[in-house]
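Q: What would this chain look like folded?
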Amino acid sequence: MAITTLGVVGTGAMGSGIIEVAAKAGVTVIARDINAAAVEAGQGKVEGSMAKAVERGKLDEAARAAAVANVTWTTEMADLAPCDLVIEAAPENLALKKEIFTELDGILDADAIIATNTSSYPIIEVAMVTGRADKVVGMHFFNPATVMKLVEVISTQRTSDVTKAAADAFATDVLGKRVVHCKDRAGFVVNMLLVPYLCQAMRMFENGHASAPDIDEAMKLGAGHPMGPLELSDMIGLDVMLWTAESLHDEYNEAFYAPPPLLRRMVAAGQLGRKTGQGFYSY
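A: My prediction, written as structure tokens:
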């Protein structure tokens, strides 16, 4: 199945990165968000990122102009009707994702594929609110999608081989990514391993074992990690960290997946990280 028109629902950090990668690869993209302000912010992220790529000599002006022209921005879900594939990149809220999948199911052609970029929820949860569970798949990109090469492709018990092959081909042959496959369990591969590590660093900080800079410096210099665990948590967003840890804890009922109390307090206080100056370095 050839995918020539991509829809992206959600134009935040993850959605805007997916939009940019696809547009630069020559794909026609229809980008939808909930209101005009969100659309304007997403468009600003994508076009600003491409302008910076031109400044750094990583993209020429003609390629930038062509990529910008490949994207249509909208607030209307109905505008996604021509898409061969729609990737949902909305916030990690299962009820919201189910609403989006239900609406897309009624809009798209019968052969269209719907994918979710969820970082934590089992894919079957959203597949079963549609009448096309065989055409639902997980495609988990990593932030920033313009740089990170990995896409986790997750098939449910109902995902067809044709759908899985189409998702693989789009990620690898069109977008130039590398694909790994895993079972449809919360956390997939990366977050099932990564989240307990990040949460343990939060517990270490909460218990006063070491400062945030020292925890991060130790893992960068001692383990060769490009970012420390608390820096990475701040970049991901503490609300996303909380949602993901809760989802893993619900799925596996293992104590080491439980979110630390400090993480809950920081999210409740609005200290959400994401390079805003808030997070563990301002706590």
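The CA atoms of residues 16 and 46 lie 6 Å apart.
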